[in-house]
Amino acid sequence: MAKKQVIVLGAGPGGYAAAFQAANLDLDVTLIDPKPDPGGVCLFHGCIPTKALLHLAAVKDESEKAADWGLTFSGVKVDIDKVRQWKQSVVKQLTGGLGQLAKARKVEYLQGWATLTGKNSLEFSPVKGEKKQIEFENLIIATGATPSGLPGVDFNDDVWNAELALELKEVPKRLLVVGAGYIGLEMSVIYKSLGSDITIAEFTSDILPGLDQDLRDVFKKERKDLMQNTLFNTKVTGVTKKGKKLEVELETKDGKKKESFDKILVAIGGRPNSRNIGLEEVGVELDDKGFVNVDLVRRTSVQNIYAIGDVAGQPMLAHKASHEGRVAAEHIAGHKTAFEPKAIPAVVFTDPEIAWTGLTEGEAKEQGKKVEVAKFPWAASGRAVTLGLKNGLTKLIIDPENDRILGAGFVGKEAGAMVAEATLAIEMAAVARDLELTIHPHPTLSETIMEAAEVYFGHATHIHKKKKK
Amino acid sequence: MIKEIKLPEIADNVTTATVLEVLVSEGDKVGADDMLAEMESDKASFELPSEVDGVVKEVKVKAGDEVKVGQVMFTIDTEGGDAGEKEEKSSGEKEEPAAKEEKKETSEKDEAKVAEDKKQADREPEKEQEPQASKKEEVSSAPASDKPASHVPASPAVRRLAREIGIDITQVKGSGPSARVTEEDVKAFAKSVIQGKPSVSSGMVDDFELPDFSKYGEIRREKMDTIRKITAKSMAGSWQNVPHVFQFDKTDVTELEKFRKDYSKLVEKQGGKLTVTAILLKLSALGLRKFPKFNASVDMKNEEIIYKDYVNIGVAVDTERGLIVPVIRDADKKSITELSVELGDIAERARTKKIKPDELQGANFTISNLGGIGGTNFTPIVNRPTVAILGVSRSQMEPIWMDGEFKPRLMLPLSLSYDHRLIDGADGARFLRWLCEAMQNPLVTMF
After folding, report:
1. What is d(CA A360, CA A137) in angstroms, rounded to the nearest whole number?
2. Which pLDDT score, from 0 to 100, does residue B261 have?
3. Contact B148, B194 (CB under 8 A)
4. Which of B102, B135, B153 is closest, CB to CB, to A283?
5. What is the mean pLDDT of the segment spanning A347-375?
6. A442 catalytic, yes or no?
7. What is the pTM of this model?
8. Are residues A140 and A38 located together in one domain of the fold?
9. Contacts (Cβ under 8 Å, ≥6 apart) of A335
10. What's the pLDDT tens digit per position in B318-359?
11. Contact A429/B132, CB-based, under 8 Å?
C-alpha cells in the first residue's frame, strides 16, 4: 500500500488547520478523528458552543440591566430545550461546513482512532469496520488535551467537565464550579444566567492565575454576584452522593466544611493526550508533564513526526494550535517557516470580557524587565458610558527604552475584539507613538487604545494628568 | 546535577569560536581541569576546561562547528561517574536499540541545527532550486541567533521574508523608528550579502567571477581556516579603507650587531634571545612616545583622532596556521631584556596554540620582521585600527662612503607603511629616519 504523504491525527482547530494548509500546498492529506466532521473540542464542546451560550447570557443580563436605562422587559424565560437545540444547530452548521471544506480540498477524512506502530506507520481503528495498518511519510499529532478531574472522582451525570456541562441536560439549582480559570468563569456566567445558584471553589488565591491584578479587580468589581460566592484557597477534598444531592467536602485555610450541591463542574485545566497512542514507543520525547517536545517548526524528536496544539504545550488555545498547524504543514511542504509569535492573545468571554496579549506586568517583573504601564480607565470613554459600562480598563505594557508595545490588557465589553489590534501592534513592533498617531473611530471602545498611548506620553485627551514626557 | 559547559566570554568583540577538536566523548569521566575541546577564535587557539568533575553526558558540538559565546557545548553529570551507572547505560542500550537510534537522530538534528546556524546566511540564498526532499533538510529550525527572531522589531511578514530568503533577521539593522526592520532593510541586507558587502561587518567578499579552472587542469578546493578568513577580511578591509603611503630607509647596524652579539649571553641568562626585533620593539616604543600620531587611531565617524597613553606593539609571528600577531603591552616601560624574554615566550605560545585571545588584541603599532627569510624590502599593510606598521627586511653588507672611502657596513632595510588620513609624508619620513638614527646611536632617544 502506498504511503500517505501527510497524516494529521486529530481534527481540532490545530489539526484541521494543518490539514487544510497542507492541502493548499498540494500535499496529499489524511485527517483522522473519531468525530463525524472536523472541529474537535473547540467546535463540538469548547469555544463555539460556550460562546453561543455566553451570547445568550449576555443578552439576558443586558436586558435586565436595561431597566436602569428605562427599558423593562418582562417575562424573560429560559427554555433549556430550545437553548440546547440552538447550540446544537450552531455546532452542526460550523462542523458541517468544515466537513465540506475538507472535501473541497480533497482531504481524506477517516473517522476513527489511531495508534503509532512505527516511525512511519500507524494502526487505524475506524468507528465502523476493521483495523488496518497505514503507512505515512509525515505525521502531525494534534490529539489535544483531556480535562483533568478531581482525584478519585470520575466525570458522570453529576460531576461534569465542560463537555458534559454543555450538554445542557438540566439547570441545577446549586452548582459548584471548581476552578476560577477561564472555563470555570465562563461556565459560571452561563449557568448563572440560566438560573443556577453558583459557588466557585478556587485552589489559588485569585481568579485567572497569571493575570494582572488590575484587570482581575475590574472583573471582580463588575461580577460581585459571582465573587461573593467564590471561595479562594479552597480545595475539594471529597464528593459523596447523598440521595439526589452531592455532599462536597471543602478544605479552606480555616479548616474543612461540608456543603450540599446538585451538580459539580470541574474546570481545573487539562492534560495532553500524548499517552497510549504509541508516541514514546516510537521515540517521540515527552516532557515531564506529558507534553510532546517540539522545535521551532513543531517537529518532535522524530524527524517526520510533528506535534501541534494542546498536546505540544501551553498555552492550550485554539488559535495557537491553528497557527502551529499551519507552520508544521508549511515545513513539511519544504517552506522555510517557524512558530515565533511575539504575542498570543487570550480572551475570557465572560461579561465583562477579559483579554490580554504579549507580556503581562507579572511576567515583566519575573524577567526583571523594566516596563511602563499606561492605563486608560473606561469611565473616561464616551462609548463606554453610552453602553452603560461603569468599569472597564485598557492598559498597555510599554518598553520605556524604545516605546515599543510589549503587551496589552483589556477588561470590559468587546475586550476580545480589541485585543486583536494590540496583538497586531506587538507583532508589527509598533511603538506607543504609532498607536497614538493612528486615528481611531469615534465613538468606539477602540479609542481607549489610542488614549492609553496618549497617557504614556502624559497628555490624554480625556484624562488630565501631569506632564511626564 | 547536570552542569552545562558553555563557551565563555573569551575577549572583547569575540562572539564566536570554532571547534578544532572535541577531546572527549559521551560517557567519559572528566576532572575539573580536563580539557573538553580545542577551540579557535579570531587568531587564537585555546582549550575549554571541564570546570567540574563528572561524566560527560552530552557532546553538543563537533569539530568545525562555530559556537557562540554562551552556547552550551557539553553537559556534565556531576553525580554520575560510578561504574554502576555506566553499566546500566550500556545494558540499556543493548535492550533498546530503538532508543539509541533515536538518540542518534536527535544529535544529528542538533548538528544540523548548528551547521544551519553557521551557514544559513551565506548559503541559503543559492539553494532555491533544489528538489523538495532535500530542500526540507535545509530548512532551518532555529534562527541563527540566540535571540528568537520574534524579538527583532519587525512585522511577521518581514520576519517570514527573511527566513525564506535565508537571512538571519537578528543581523539586520532596522531603519525604522526604534530600529524597526522593514522589508527594504531585509532586502538591502540580502543584497549586501550577495554582493559581499555586509552592512554590519567590515569583512569584504570578493565578487570577482572566477573562471572554471578545471578547464585547464586538475584543481582541488579547500576550506579556509579561521585565521585565513580573518586575515583575508581584515587585510582587504584595511587595503580598501586606508590610504597607504610607503616609506623606505636603511640604517647602519654594524655597531648594533656587535652590541647584540656581546650582550646576547646576558639576555640568554634571563631566558631570552636578544634579537633585532626585540631591540626594534624598544626603540619603536620610544619612537611612538615621541611621535604620538603613530600611536593613535582614526575615528572617521566622529572625525576625531584617538591618542593613546599606552604603548602596545604587535609582533607578526609566522606559524604553521598562518600569520598571528601577539601583542606586547607597555613596551616603552620594559627593558630590552624583558622584551626579549616576553617576545620569545609569546611567539612560542603563538606557534603552539597556547596563546590567549586577549593577548592578540590592543596593539597600537605592528612590527613585521621578514629578515630571517630574506628580501630587500616589502610593503606591509596597515592593520586597522592601527595607523602604521614597520617592515623589517634582511640586513646586508654594503659599501658605504665614510670618511673619504667606501667601508663595508651592515645595512638594515626598513619600510614604514602608514595611514595618510592621519599621517603626512613628512611625519612618516621623520619617524622612520628617527628610528634609523636611534638604531645607529641610541643616544638620540634621550633627546
Report:
1. 41
2. 92
3. no
4. B102
5. 95
6. yes
7. 0.60
8. yes
9. A25, B139, B164
10. 888 888 899 999 999 999 999 999 999 999 988 887 888 788
11. no
